[in-house]
Amino acid sequence: MIAVLTQEARLLLAAVRYFTRVPVPTWVGHSADQTRLSARYFPLVGILVGGGSAGVWWLCQTFLPAPVSLLLAMIAGVAATGAFHEDGLADFCDGFGGGADRAAVLRIMKDSRVGSYGVLGLGAVLALKFAALSYLPFKLLPLVLIAGHSLSRFTAVTFLYTHPYAREEADAKAAAFAPGIGAAQLAVAGAFGLAPLLLLPPVLLPGLVPVAALRVWLAALLRRRIGGYTGDCLGAAQQLSEALFYLAALGLWTST
User: Fold this and answer.
1) What b-and-e string marks burial along 95-129, b requiring 16 or more CB atoms within 10 Å of the CB?
2) pTM over 0.90
3) Domain ranges of the chain
């Protein structure tokens, strides 16, 4: 039992190391297989990052205006992950916006430079997240923030189960996930990804529908354009589904 718990702790810390700038102990170790298996805990990392952002918001709103507090909370989340997902979204927008064929899309996404599609796409998504969250009531904002972080990471994880890795080279960071994940791992990720939704008012639960629709659309787009996913595609899936969930939550709340 202790060995099992130790192994799971290693996987959780491996997920923290992969997705955040938080240092982890050296005893965690590192291997491609460990990184792949840690995917089950990616939504839990989302809960931690979202919880940290909510904590920054709660602390700041006691002495700062609400918009400033929310902006600082979002900055804290970006800083915690090193803009990992945001970078993926920008590359995704550049690749799919400017690439005429599969090879061009993959080449553009691998380019470290950010183009106009990336700047506009990232700016639009960040602005939408800020605007949607800023109109939520005080009691709902931290819960929706945490739920958005966990749900969006689960959305990204589902592509590890349903889609192949699109690149042939093995030097990319997401190449560790090329073998994919199994149904058991997906179920664990789903439990962590959906758990925060239980804390929300039932009226907000239909917000899952547009996120699921986005996932279906992205799945078809990735298969048609590049035949699978890349790390940048996972980052885009996370960012887009997070923003859409916030917008859906706002719409559902204001319509009641």
Assistant:
1) bbeebeeeeebbebbeeeeebebbeebbeebbebb
2) yes
3) 42-254
77-83 long-range contacts, CB within 8 A, separation 24+: 77/49, 77/50, 77/52, 77/53, 77/149, 79/21, 80/20, 80/21, 80/22, 80/49, 80/52, 80/53, 81/19, 81/20, 81/21, 81/49, 82/20, 82/21
- Give me the average pLDDT of each 10-residue run along the chain (256 residues): 75 89 84 85 96 97 95 97 95 95 95 93 97 95 98 97 87 72 94 97 96 98 96 97 98 93
Q: What string of DSSP letters covers the chain?
A: -HHHHHHHHHHHHHHHHHHSS----GGG---HHHHHHGGGGHHHHHHHHHHHHHHHHHHHTTTS-HHHHHHHHHHHHHHHHTTHHHHHHHHHHHHHHH-SSHHHHHHHHH-SS--HHHHHHHHHHHHHHHHHHHTS-TTTHHHHHHHHHHHHHHHHHHHHHHS-B--S-S-SGGGGGTT---HHHHHHHHHHHHGGGGGS-GGGGGGHHHHHHHHHHHHHHHHHHTSSB-HHHHHHHHHHHHHHHHHHHHHHHHT-
φ/ψ of residue 92, rounded to 5: -60, -45
